[in-house]
Each structure stands twice: as C-alpha cells, then as structure tokens.
Design a protein that fits this description.
- By secondary structure, this protein is an alpha/beta fold.
- The chain is built from eight helices and 16 strands.
- It has a single domain, classed as Metallo-dependent phosphatases (Purple Acid Phosphatase, chain A, domain 2).
- Strands 1, 2, 3, 4, 6, 14, 15 and 16 form an eight-stranded mixed β-sheet that branches.
- The longest helix has 15 residues.
- It is globular, with a radius of gyration of 18 Å.
C-alpha cells in the first residue's frame, strides 16, 4: 500500500470516542481563557491498535483512534495545544519499513504543536531524524543537547512560545543522556548537557524575560529513579519557573499528575501517560484577565 493512501485511511477513521462530562466547566466565563493541553509519549511506532488477543492492552491505541479523539476535542474546545514527549519511533515493523517517515507524517496530520526528542528517535540515524524534522509541521524542542555540529543544528529549538488569547505559553524540551542508550554513530556529534541546569535556565528566560503565563517542559528524562540520575521529579523539585512537566521514557502511566513542591514551595505538576499511544493525556487550564491561573486535572483518556 502506498504510504500516502495508508495515511489517508489511518487518519480518516470514523470511530467516535467518549470523554465523559466535564464538571469543571463552571470555571469558564467571559472573563477566562480556557487552554486544553493534550499530550502523548513513547508511542514507539504503534500505528495500529493492540490486537484483540486477550492481552492487557487489547484494542487500545492506534493512530486512527487517537486522531479521531483529538479531532473531537478540537471541535469541543477553542484553544488546544498538542505535544509529544519523545520516542516517537521504534517498536513495530512500520519503523523498520518507513524509517520514521510514516510516524512523522501522521503527527503532521494530527497537527501536533511541538515535541521533544527521545533516545529512540535517533534509531535511524541523526541524518534521517533531521530529514523527518525538516518535513514536519511541528517544532522539535530540546535545550540540553548541543547540536551545533550536527544536521539538527537549524531545526531543533530550545523553546517555543504560543500566544493564545493574550495568554503566553512557553514550552521547552529536555532529553536523556544518549551515551549508553544510543550507538555513537547514530547520534553523531550531539553533545549532552546538564538537563536540570539548562531546563531551569530556559524556563527562567521564558517566565522572567518573555513573561510567559505558563511554562511547560516536555521531558524525555524519565519520571523517577532510585539512583541520582536526572528525572522529572528531580527537575520539578529544583525548579522555580516551570509550571508543568510532561514526561516520557519510563513509560509511567499516571491516572492523575503528581504534584511536586518546587524550591520556592510552589506547585509543579508532573504527568506521563504510559506508552504506545494507549492513552491521551489532558489538562485544562483557566486564566482570568489578570492571568491568575486555575487548573483542572482530569484523568487521562484511554484511546479505544
């Protein structure tokens, strides 16, 4: 099957998915701006749903179902941002055959707004990853890889700012150490820098210099480790300008985000929604005209 026809068929699935009622709509008024944040992580080239074989995830996931769910939410909500937290690639024969082009084209069809790089996104090589990013309609973000001597130098940014109804949302990305996870020949001259230091510096720039009302970190560090490795929880505790961390890498499936106190005693939310596209994360934020923020944290939605 030609890839183009496959993409058209995949993204035009007619499955209708229910989200249930949203009791927190009472926060909405003419004086507030509602922002709906959707996110995925570690999709790993899972284009089809899991087979109906009695397994734990049978029937869940699949690009067509996710596209339909995202489309429905966009029809219901005025302001939607869609993010991915890395490991877009590797895990099914689709990756072996298309080397990632199919996965990125499907994300274009779903209108992702930004993503960060996972270690498996280098599995076809840094040149191929650069080619995919060149052909994507969403921004790839990372602030702790020095890519100045690589093909990615011009198409990966430290951050991106979204301005939605006079609410400024700053988004940055951080990635895990590649050495030991990715063969050197696949990531080339990409240099790993301290993710916590660089994330906090970038977040401070977004919050204090650009006056962002919400700062989001797209992370592929992993949720938590017993060792002293950098993680989402460590980043949250060390921060003073990050409001929300959307994570990946450890395939952690959280029913609701974890609340962490940063070094100023302020709340940072950390969320991650498993792997393989079986869930779509969703958080709704409400901003008053004075930019005072109220947040509503619903459960993540199974993609079925």
């Amino acid at each position: 099957m030609l890839r183009r026809k496959f993409i058209q068929r995949t993204t035009s699935g007619l499955l209708v998915l229910g989200l249930g009622s949203f009791p927190n709509e009472l926060f909405a008024s003419n004086n507030t701006t509602k922002l709906t944040i959707l996110h995925t992580n570690d999709v790993h080239s899972r284009i089809d749903p899991f087979p109906l074989d009695g397994g734990k995830y049978q029937g869940l996931g699949g690009a067509a179902k996710r596209a339909t769910l995202i489309d429905r939410i966009r029809k219901e909500e005025e302001n939607v941002l869609l993010f991915d937290c890395g490991d877009i690639l590797q895990g099914t024969p689709y990756f072996n055959f298309y080397e990632g082009s199919l996965e990125f084209e499907l994300m274009n069809k779903m209108k992702y707004d930004a993503a960060t790089i996972g270690n498996h996104d280098f599995d076809a090589g840094i040149e191929k990853l650069s080619e995919h990013i060149d052909n994507s309609n969403f921004q790839m973000l990372n602030c702790n890889y020095n890519l100045s001597n690589t093909p990615l130098k011009n198409n990966v940014k430290n951050y991106k700012i979204f301005d939605i109804q006079n609410v400024k949302i700053g988004v940055l990305g951080v990635g895990i150490k590649l050495d030991g996870l990715v063969p050197k020949n696949l990531y080339g001259d990409a240099e790993y820098l301290d993710p916590i230091k660089n994330a906090n510096e970038t977040a401070s720039l977004l919050k204090n210099e650009f006056k962002c009302d919400l700062v989001i970190c797209l992370s592929h560090l992993g949720y938590e480790y017993e060792s002293d490795r950098p993680s989402d929880l460590k980043l949250a505790k060390s921060s003073n300008s990050i409001d929300l961390i959307l994570g990946g890498h450890t395939h952690t499936c959280l029913d609701v985000p974890t609340s962490v106190a940063n070094k100023n005693g302020e709340e940072v939310l950390v969320n991650q929604v498993g792997w393989a596209g079986i869930r779509l994360g969703r958080l709704d934020y409400y901003f008053t005209k004075t930019k005072k923020r109220k947040k509503v944290v619903p459960k993540s939605t199974n993609v079925r």
